[in-house]
């Protein structure tokens, strides 16, 4: 594998909707899935200084077609986003969708076929089409969301035999981490509290986040003495896969994201492009790890490919997002990348080093727990945040030393390890 | 694939085996490693030259946690929350499966974690519509 891009590639524009619920969240309530997606696309096109007619191709991703009932998105959305008569495809790489789309766009451009590609991700994990209505929606039960989501997981054996994402992605990884580094269960629990506190702080400063309430404010609202008392509550924060609790997990959301990928010299003067310097993609079926649940070979390969293509080293990374449907899994990936010393993630969290103003900022939009998770749209939301931080436009949560290099890692269920490296142009 | 089984899905052969208390796997003639549960080619080297073999059903439970309730899959609603484990079989295969004989409580799971790796044996769980791979502590 040559693992090289023949052209310099830019992300010329990014867009993202509010993440939340199409039935309840003020910025989304009443919108159709087409309009929610169009809002994200318009923001990305405006950001790039382009219209839908300026792009050569449109790659649109949606993982859970059961709730969207919207296959063939390239044409079904084209009159909503102004891209009629373009080239296009509907694709999915589950929760890595939009960043895999960015990689596919980079390959299409670097090969010399296209100059400008629009990548879009949309997902509704909280609401679904009601009956056969063109506009009415209804909530999805928690069990139905996972049943549909798990259709991306081994359907011959693992799912029919009692596979559970929370056990596999949280509980077992947590126990492996504690065993490997000699961390007591109570210390682990306290450390995960600190991680959640950080993510919720970030969410509280992110206007598009699903949850914008700090853990401390939630504790006050619910009458707890402090945030840690809330954390240890069986009622509000039960174990979902011992020793991992509910608030160390993903929060579902409806949402959409978009980005415009171009040849670097075509990134418009009106935009603030960043370079897509490299990427890596590697998948594996269950189990995602061998005897050591903290080490994922698929991530190792994905990260190594991305770093090799981009020519950067872990020490160059100024901002990192790792896929954190499971907070402990995301921290293991950060350690694998070399952003955090092995076994030190919980200490870093306790010392505030993972905060936006710490020396190892991570997931400054709040991550999967606070920003929320709209499967096929989420990788795009992570890239949106990275670009925002690199531009110095993140407002209250701006990393003080604007990052020159940002790395975004995502897990596309189940399981596509995807890594993007962004740098300044 | 041997001619006698050419038209039988590996999935059906596997579940038929479980129904009889047998763990059926494929073994690669090229690299000598197992693919379990069975598929059409070696998961390690990609070879299509495979034999059918039966596993001992013995292994070691490395880690044990639990699932959520209601379970993600309706099939398991009647038994959720249940214990779910990460295991190494004696043949060197890493699998994850339901663990019987351990309560899905923090206290019981903490005791398992503090004890360390636990020998286990296969203990197939028979649900209404499907036999399911499961294990229990040996002895």
Automatic annotation (TrEMBL), chain A:
The keyword Acyltransferase applies. GO terms for molecular function: acetyl-CoA C-acyltransferase activity. Residues 291-421 form the Thiolase C-terminal domain. The keyword Acyltransferase applies. Keywords: Acyltransferase, Transferase. Residues 27-132 form the Thiolase N-terminal domain. This is Acetyl-CoA C-acyltransferase 8.
UniProtKB/TrEMBL annotation, chain B:
InterPro entries: ChsH2_C, ChsH2_Znr, NA-bd_OB-fold, Thioester_dehydratase-like. This is Conserved protein associated with acetyl-CoA C-acyltransferase. It comes from Polymorphum gilvum (strain LMG 25793 / CGMCC 1.9160 / SL003B-26A1). It holds the Pfam family OB_ChsH2_C. GO terms for molecular function: acyltransferase activity. The keyword Nucleotide-binding does not apply. Gene3D superfamilies: 6.10.30.10. It comes from the Bacteria. Residues 52-106 form the ChsH2 C-terminal OB-fold domain.
């Amino acid at each position: 594998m040559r693992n090289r891009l023949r052209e310099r590639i830019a992300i010329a524009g990014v867009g993202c909707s509010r993440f939340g619920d199409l039935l309840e969240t003020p910025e989304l309530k009443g919108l159709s899935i087409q309009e929610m997606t169009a809002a994200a696309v318009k923001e990305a096109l405006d950001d790039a200084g382009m219209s839908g007619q300026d792009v050569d191709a449109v790659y649109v991703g949606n993982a859970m077609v059961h709730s969207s009932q919207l296959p063939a998105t390239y044409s079904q959305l084209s009159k909503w986003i102004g891209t009629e008569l373009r080239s296009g495809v509907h694709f999915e790489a589950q929760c890595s969708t939009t960043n895999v789309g960015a990689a596919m766009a980079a390959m299409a451009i670097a090969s010399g076929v296209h100059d400008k590609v629009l990548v879009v991700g949309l997902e509704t994990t909280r609401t679904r089409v009601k009956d056969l209505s063109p506009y009415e929606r209804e909530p999805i039960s928690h069990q139905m969301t996972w049943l549909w989501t798990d259709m991306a997981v081994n359907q011959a054996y693992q799912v029919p035999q009692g596979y559970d994402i929370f056990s596999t992605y949280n509980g077992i990884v947590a126990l492996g981490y504690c065993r490997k580094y000699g961390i007591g269960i109570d210390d682990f629990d306290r450390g995960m509290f600190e991680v959640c506190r950080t993510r919720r702080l970030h969410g509280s400063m992110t206007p598009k986040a699903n949850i914008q309430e700090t853990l401390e404010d939630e504790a006050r609202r619910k009458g707890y003495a402090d945030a840690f008392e809330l954390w240890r509550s069986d009622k509000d924060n039960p174990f979902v896969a011992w020793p991992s609790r509910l608030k160390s997990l993903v929060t579902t959301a409806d949402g959409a994201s978009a980005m415009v990928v171009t040849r670097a010299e075509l990134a418009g003067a009106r935009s603030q492009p960043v370079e897509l310097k490299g990427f890596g993609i590697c998948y594996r079926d269950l189990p995602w790890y061998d005897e050591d649940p903290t080490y994922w070979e698929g991530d190792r390969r994905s990260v190594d490919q991305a770093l090799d293509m981009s020519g950067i080293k872990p020490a160059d990374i100024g901002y990192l997002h790792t896929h954190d449907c499971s907070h402990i899994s995301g921290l293991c990936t950060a350690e694998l990348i070399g952003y955090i010393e092995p076994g030190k993630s919980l200490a870093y969290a306790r010392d505030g080093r993972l905060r936006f103003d710490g020396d190892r900022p991570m997931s400054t939009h709040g991550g999967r727990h606070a920003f929320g998770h709209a499967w096929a749209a989420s990788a795009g939301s992570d890239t949106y945040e990275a670009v925002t931080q690199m531009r110095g436009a993140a407002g209250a949560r701006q990393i003080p030393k604007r990052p020159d290099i940002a790395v975004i890692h995502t897990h596309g269920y189940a399981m596509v390890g995807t890594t993007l490296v962004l740098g300044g142009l | 694939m041997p001619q006698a089984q050419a038209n039988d899905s590996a999935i059906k052969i596997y579940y038929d085996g479980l129904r009889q208390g047998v763990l059926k796997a494929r073994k690669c003639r090229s690299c000598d490693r197992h693919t379990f549960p069975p598929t059409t080619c070696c998961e390690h080297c990609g070879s299509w030259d495979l034999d059918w073999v039966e596993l001992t059903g013995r292994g070691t439970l490395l880690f044990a946690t639990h699932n959520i309730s209601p379970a993600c899959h309706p099939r398991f609603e009647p038994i959720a929350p249940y214990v779910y484990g990460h295991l190494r079989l004696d043949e060197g295969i890493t699998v994850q499966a339901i663990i019987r004989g351990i309560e899905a409580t923090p206290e019981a799971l903490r005791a398992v974690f503090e004890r360390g790796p636990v020998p286990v044996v296969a203990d197939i769980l028979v649900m209404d519509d499907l036999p399911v791979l499961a294990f229990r502590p040996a002895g």
